[in-house]
Amino acid sequence: MAFDVDSFARTAAPVRTDDLGDLAERFARRPLSDEGLRCLRYMHDVESHTVCYLRDLLLTPSHRDPRITTFLTVWNYEEHSHGVALGSVLAAHGEPHGDERNAAVRARQGRFEGLKAMLTAAAAAAVGEDFVAVHMSVGAVNEWTTRSGYARLIEREQHPALTALLTRIMAQESRHIAFYASEARTRLAASARARRVTRWALRRKWAPVGSGVMPAEETAFVLGHLLDGESGRREASRIDALIDRLPGQAGLGLMTGTADRYATAVR
Ligand SMILES: [Fe+2]
Ligand SMILES: [Fe+2]
Questions:
Q1: 202 C-alpha vs ligand 1 centroid, how far in Å?
Q2: Is the CATH code 1.10.10 the one for domain 32-262?
Q3: Of the residues 50, 101, 246, 257, which has the fewest C-beta atoms closer than 10 A?
Q4: How remote is the CA of residue 115 from the centroid of ligand 2, in Å?
């Protein structure tokens, strides 16, 4: 069954934190580990950067499909709320969060980041309609890995307040997954060229979520921390199996490859 975008738009809501008790008190009693907090800063910054990513996507052929732009409008709103919710945990640890961190991330992108967006837009325009399949497939991969990053952080921290909050975020990521994956499947199934271009893009151009905007050592740390050990490995294989089921995308080994690259880097 096709994803119901109108119902998604009607039922979207920011992730709540106001009913989780006094977070400052809960995290003062039991703070997150230094490693967990470092992952959380990364997740906060990347979730909050979604609107900039959306700006770039709206320069591509995806903007022509009103179903997709309705989804993206609401998706961006929910991702923004994830940044805010994660910011409340940073605040509970007495850490900078929200606009203070977000402005710094944007300042770090430098003067030429708009140029990068323009080059992507030119490439996407050259690909034409089949670019939408690339966008939807990359979206599915990024949402799968994001949700699994939260699951791994829950597992590593075992902190009740963090678990409650991240479980709520993960429920929203699941709806994002449902949209991207169903759109990707339909579009890939319909066009051999879309399958080819997407396969090329995933193999040659895909990079872990946040790696384009965060310092390389932070990406390496977060991936290393979350993909480490038996559970990390299992999670990477699970995501690869999901990617394998997208038409024409079997055997790419994106996440197991990423785990190989990063998981030992922090030991
Ligand atoms: Fe999110
Ligand atoms: Fe998401």
A1: 21
A2: no
A3: 257
A4: 25
